[in-house]
Write a structure and sequence with these properties.
By secondary structure, the protein is of the alpha/beta class. It has helices at 68-81, 96-108, 116-123, 132-140; strands at residues 11-13, 19-24, 38-43, 53-58, 87-91. It is built from 4 helices and 5 strands. The longest helix is centred in the middle third of the chain and has 14 residues, at 68-81. The chain starts with 10 loop residues before the first strand and ends with a helix.
Length: 141
Amino acid sequence: MNGWEEQGPGILRLPSGRLVRGRGLRNRLDPAAPTPSYGVYLLGDRPPEVAWEARWLRWPDFRLPADRAEAWEVLTEAWRRSAGERVEIACGGGKGRTGTALACLAVLDGVPPGTAVAYVREHYDRRAVETPWQRRYVRRF
């Protein structure tokens, strides 16, 4: 659908069939792995430059986005673009912030907010979405 291989590392298939890659930036990207066409980086500090189009969403580790309106805008854009582009969502470890953002994309894709965290844990990483306030953020997204 958008160039990601469904069996690739970190790939989450949303109910609509859209594929999104989540990853931890502390883990080097395999040089043979496909690069995203659009990346969203969830970090407390500005991320390093990348060769593809990217957005930085200020989001400190173990916390919530600094600007929730901006988070809504950025995540909605990522979901929209995932229909035809290789979209990557990433934070330091690829679990808490990334899992939270992926759960928000699942909500945008039609997963009920109350089950989106479970969906991401089942289909992406069982430890995704690390804190109670991240889980609450997804329920209210």
